[in-house]
Design goal:
With 314 residues, this protein is α+β, with helices and mostly antiparallel strands. 39% of the residues lie in helices and 28% in strands. Bound molecules: adenosine-5'-triphosphate.
Length: 314
């Protein structure tokens, strides 16, 4: 039976700016997204029935049709019913290494891997842009998870512009197991508090989007200047999440006190990351912060920027 193993990297935001409301109810965003080597592994095989099955031993990951990986497989079955009838359904096994509900796009990466895997199993021959068009129907972060690396994302986050990929930066991630931030809550709260900054006309959106293209962060990325990158990272959602979750704010302050290149919350949180020059520095920073905040609920990961999206292995 045909099967594939795929690596689905997590992402962090190096930049997240909320520009305004969209007619479809989502927010208009400008983000700079970065893949990291912390990744889930997805094994996918053709089933001898027409069904889609999910296996995962992480207690927070649903195994039913609400799983994003399931929804990706269902989308492929709906869009390619003849292939579904010919090849049958799929069995999907998720090895979860990316923390769940962490602002690291773990579920989105799993869905991206399933789209890539079914494209291979059913020999559809879809190109990356064609897969990304399908991915955008499932979720805003999923097109990026397919191609990975470093990219500017606009619209809901699904429109991508590739930029020079960053590779040689190390990251320490930290997340409290017992803190979860609802992404819809974060965006709604932002709307309540900051809607006076919103623009909604096409010219205004274009202007704000263009500004990012000529920002110090993009210049620093183009020249691979890690010090400048660290100084220029930005996330609008910190303005609502950090005041509501003082432990997350303290965690960020603890990283900032370590002379790291930069520290920020990823997406809607609650994961906080710190950018470091080397693996050695990242390990030392993790040790310092772990000693300073001795809470057993606080988990750490040391990883590196990645230039890859979904990769097949084995
Ligand atoms: P994003 O950064 O895209 O907002 P996230 O990293 O914050 O995502 P996920 O790890 O994708 O969050 O999980 C969000 C919720 O989605 C979880 O509470 C979980 O119940 C559900 N979920 C559905 N499918 C998956 C999956 N394959 N992996 C993890 N969580 C999933």
């Amino acid at each position: 039976m045909q099967s594939y193993s795929l690596i689905a990297p997590a992402k962090i935001n190096l930049y997240l700016e909320i520009i305004g409301d969209r007619p479809d109810g989502f927010h208009e965003l400008v983000m700079i997204l970065q893949s990291i080597e912390l990744a889930d592994r997805i094994d996918i095989e053709a089933s001898d029935t027409q069904d889609i099955s999910i296996r995962c031993d992480h207690p927070q990951v649903p195994l039913d049709e609400t799983n994003l990986a399931y929804r990706a497989a269902k989308l492929m079955c709906d869009v390619f019913p003849k292939m579904h009838a010919n090849y049958g359904g799929v069995n999907i096994r998720i090895e979860k290494n990316i923390p769940v509900a962490a602002g690291l796009a773990g579920g989105s990466g799993n869905a991206a891997a399933v789209l890539v895997g079914i494209n291979l199993i059913w020999k559809l021959g879809l190109t990356q842009p064609e897969l990304q068009d399908l991915a955008a129907k499932l979720g805003s972060d999923i097109p990026f998870c397919i191609s990975g690396g470093t990219a500017i994302a606009t619209g809901r986050g699904e429109k991508l512009d590739e930029i020079k990929h960053l590779a040689d930066m190390w990251v320490v991630l930290a997340k409290y197991n017992n803190i979860g931030v609802s992404t819809p809550w974060a965006y709604q709260t932002y709307r309540q508090q900051y809607s006076d900054t919103y623009v909604s006309d096409t010219a205004g959106i274009k202007f704000r989007t263009k500004k990012v293209h000529s920002s110090p962060l993009l210049t620093a990325i183009a020249h691979q200047e890690s010090q400048e990158i660290g100084k220029s990272i930005h996330n609008d959602l910190e303005k609502v999440v950090l005041p509501e979750y003082p432990q997350v704010a303290e965690l960020k302050a603890a990283f900032a006190a370590q002379n790291v290149l930069g520290t920020m919350m990823s997406g809607s949180g609650p994961t906080v990351f710190a950018l470091c020059e080397s693996e050695q520095q990242a390990i030392a920073v993790r040790q310092q912060v772990r000693t300073q905040i001795s809470d057993p609920q606080l988990k750490f990961w040391v990883t590196k920027f990645s230039t890859s999206g979904i990769q097949t292995v084995g």
